[in-house]
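Continuing from the previous page...

OK, I double-checked the sequence for 2OG-Fe(II) oxygenase against my notes and this is the correct one:
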Amino acid sequence: MTTATPTLGDRVLDTTRQGFDHESLTALLNGDVHAVRLAGFVRPDALDHLRKAFVGRQDHGPLATDPRFRRIGHAFSETSTDAGRGRYFDEARDNIDRLRDIASPYSYPADDLRLLLDEIWPAGASLLRRNGQAFFAGVARYQLAGVDLEPHTDNVGRNLPSDFDIRITRQLSVNVYLDVPERGGELQIWDDYPDESEYRDRSGDRVYGIDRAAVGEPALVITPRVGDAIFIDPRRVHAVAPSQDRPRITIGLFIGVTDPAESLKVWS
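Thanks. Re-ran it with the corrected sequence; updated structure tokens here:
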């Protein structure tokens, strides 16, 4: 079987599911590229079914941190208390089972991503766990028309309790695109790596993120394509432009690096 040779252009490493490898992920970790795009990650027959299953659904719930955003599944970034974390872990298995049922008889794309990461990383990949409790992985997000995902960074450390015994040194994210708007919905990435103290100062009293007026023009703008998977470093400032016509639907994972010799850890 032949594989597509990765190509580098405009700060994006373009490849496929077959061409994606350890070096592709390392290029992103090293900052050599701003994004890695796996074209056609979801195979055409599966994509047709998944779009019918996920597009147009109304049973998604509001994101706890901002109800303008909708999701199926409970993201760990929504938790801020011991009680909230307890609910998250209690619901983790049910949430992934629900999403697998929606995707059936095809595999859920988050499971495909987890397997791919396990295959390409020397030490494999596994679910992030705390005290024997597995994190949920594979949140489905619905960014409704007109909603701006403003410039921000993601850092799991903001939500972890002080006694968490795994130190995540680097964090990546990946989204699989099930639907994208005709106008808007572009992924925007800046050459900006604020540390946590600086990020809090720049966020001020906002619920999340940084004022667009304060960050200038992005270094890179990517127009996602249905069926693609795009990996980024979410500790760079990034954003998603508002959709002008219909919801942007993605399935996402975070990927944690604890040590180059250890397995990757995945969660949502």
